[in-house]
Automatic annotation (TrEMBL):
Organism: Flavobacterium saccharophilum
GO biological process, one term: DNA repair
Similarity section: Belongs to the RecN family.
Annotated protein name in UniProt: DNA repair protein RecN
Origin superkingdom: Bacteria
Any one GO cellular component localisation term in the record: bacterial nucleoid
Coiled-coil spans in chain: 321-355
Gene3D superfamilies assigned to the protein according to its UniProt record, in alphabetical order: P-loop containing nucleotide triphosphate hydrolases
Function description: May be involved in recombinational repair of damaged DNA.
An example Gene Ontology molecular-function term: ATP binding
Pfam families: SMC_N (PF02463)
Matches recorded under CDD domains: ABC_RecN
InterPro entries given in the database record: DNA_recomb/repair_RecN (IPR004604), P-loop_NTPase (IPR027417), RecF/RecN/SMC_N (IPR003395)
Length: 550
């Protein structure tokens, strides 16, 4: 429950501080006195967006602070999840700076508006005329029925499963599309891959083949050059070997005479040994050189195959072709796995459908059991609110569609008078009837769910007299289990409150201000008398006011 509210520099309020008690509180005041300002300030505390027009004095910041007693709300997990300090008496503060920026704090810890809005759902429910109209919305109607049906846990489980189901369906559709789109691509990729596999490419192969091709293609020229070199090297009288041996023999004779000659001799001897090795190598090469047209043709074919593949794939090396082959293998494998993935997802979806249908059936049955209870309680309350012939026909229609809260569709049909056909609530119910139905709904929900502090903003629209008295009694009864506020223009409702606050305007030094005051018992009598007769209070109005209060 809210225990206090402090407002500074907001709209027509310069400074205001007020304490609230549990039970049933009444807020009254003339039109334009500032009741909407109080609600607006409270809305800022609950996370609504603000702007500079909220500031009374544009040079100073606006501060709105509310204190809540939350020990019975089971909110410790919420505070832990949002890394906030938990206090039984929690303080929410909202500041709007002259720059237009705003800040929010929960127990002095800065928070963003979303966190404030999330917490506010557990604290205050402001019921306005707009919310009364929302009663015609199917989503709201389902929430009412599900509260009575105690469907919260099963719907939560259903929604988690539905989330997985939708995710699987999205993945499956993407795979099916990919499978459809990649049919021709798969065929072409497989063709390209098989072409590369058939080529039996190896890293560095191109360079080896090109060298082999040059050798085979020029075998006669090579052999002629080597054989001629061998003749020059080995000719008996004028060959290189003969001449080297002559030089070596001459230097050997003078080698003992000095180190210099010895070095020359050794160097020539080394050249002779090296040349002998070269000669032997040329001899081996010459013997191996054969004119092999068949091998030349095979080498040429392999090279042409490589060149063609490089041209097709727009690369210049075998290594790049091998990388393309790897990529194609992965692509073909990936596409080949699509059918397996599709089968797995299809099975997963089928299992989730089975579970979703089971949850949906349970939700449907719980709703079917709750609808007669809701209808009976609504009729019972509305009969006391001047609607003795009211009837409801709430039709629960099974659907094949998985909605966010099950597989049901709903028709909330209503008839206020005997002899009239049922019609959709939003089409046939008047404003006064909608107000009374909403009050009845809130009264019923208070028995089934832990509603937060509830503020009724002129829910008495369109009613008066005895009906207003009964509405006040219903709100009074609700306040036994929760904190209730009623902003009202009806004295019959105002008289039912445990405490009574009045919103009024005052003028100080040509400055208009809105104020909120807790009325004493005598002041309540006068306020209710004024609500009955106007500014001039008659004795009969005073007596009537006292009678209402008693």
């Amino acid at each position: 429950m809210i225990t206090s509210l402090s407002i500074k520099n907001y709209a027509l309020i310069e400074k205001l501080s007020i304490d609230f008690s549990k039970g049933f509180s009444i807020i009254t005041g003339e039109t334009g006195a500032g009741k909407s300002i109080i609600l607006g300030a409270l809305g800022l505390v609950l996370g609504k967006r603000a702007d500079l027009t909220s500031l009374k004095n544009k040079e100073e910041k606006c501060i709105i602070e509310a204190q809540f007693e939350i020990s019975k709300y089971n909110l410790k997990e919420f505070f832990e999840a949002n890394d906030l300090d938990y206090e039984d008496d929690t303080i929410i503060r909202r500041e709007i700076l002259p720059s237009g920026k705003s800040r929010a704090f929960i127990n002095d810890s800065p928070v963003n508006l979303q966190e404030l809005q999330d917490l506010s759902l557990f604290l205050i429910d402001i019921h306005s005329q707009q919310q009364t109209q929302e009663l015609s919305d199917e989503t709201v109607q389902f929430k009412i029925i599900d509260a009575i049906a105690d469907n919260f846990d099963v719907i939560t489980s259903y929604q988690e499963l539905l989330k997985g189901y939708k995710s699987d369906k999205t993945k499956l559709n993407a795979l099916l599309k990919k499978q459809s789109d990649s049919g021709k691509e798969q065929e072409y990729n497989t063709f390209l891959l098989n072409e590369l596999i058939a080529a039996k490419l190896k890293a560095g192969e191109q360079e080896e083949l090109e060298a082999e091709f040059e050798k085979l293609n020029n075998v006669e020229v090579i052999k002629e050059a080597i054989d001629k070199s061998l003749v020059i090297a080995n000719e008996e009288q004028f060959g290189v070997f003969h001449n080297l041996n002559e030089i070596k023999a001459s230097l050997q004779k003078i080698a003992p005479f000095s180190v210099e000659y010895q070095n020359l001799f050794e160097r020539v001897a080394s050249v002779a040994i090296e040349f002998d090795d070269v000669s032997r190598e040329m001899q081996n090469v010459s013997e191996k050189l054969l004119n092999d047209p068949e091998k030349l043709e095979l080498t040429n074919q392999k090279l042409q195959l490589i060149y063609n593949l490089q041209k097709k794939h727009q690369v210049i090396s075998v290594d790049e072709l091998l990388q393309i082959q790897t990529n194609l293998e992965n692509a073909v494998i990936e596409l080949g796995n699509i059918e397996e993935e599709i089968a797995l997802l299809t099975n997963s979806i089928a299992q989730k459908v089975e579970e979703l249908d089971a949850f949906s059936a349970l939700i449907h049955q719980n709703r079917a059991n709750a609808i007669p209870v809701l209808s009976s309680k609504l009729i019972s309350i509305l009969e006391t609110l001047g609607m003795p012939n009211v009837r409801f026909n709430i039709e629960l229609l099974p659907s094949e569609t998985y909605f966010q809260n099950g597989k049901d569709e709903l028709q909330f049909l209503f008839s206020a008078n005997k002899g009239t056909d049922f019609g959709l609530l939003k089409k046939v119910a008047s404003g006064g009837e909608m107000s009374r139905i909403m009050l009845a709904v809130k009264a019923i929900l208070a028995q089934y769910s832990k509603l937060p502090t509830l503020i009724f903003d002129e829910i008495d629209t369109g009613v008066s007299g005895e009906i207003a008295i009964r509405m006040g009694e219903i709100m009074k009864e609700m306040s036994r289990n929760m904190q209730i506020f009623a902003i009202t223009h009806l004295p019959q409702i105002a008289a039912k409150g445990d405490s009574h606050f009045k919103v009024f305007k005052s003028t100080v030094d040509d400055d208009t201000q809105s104020e909120l005051k807790l009325l004493s018992q005598d002041e309540r009598v006068i306020e209710i008398a004024q609500m009955l007769s106007g500014a001039v209070v008659s004795d009969s109005a005073l007596n009537h006011a006292k009678a209402l209060l008693n």
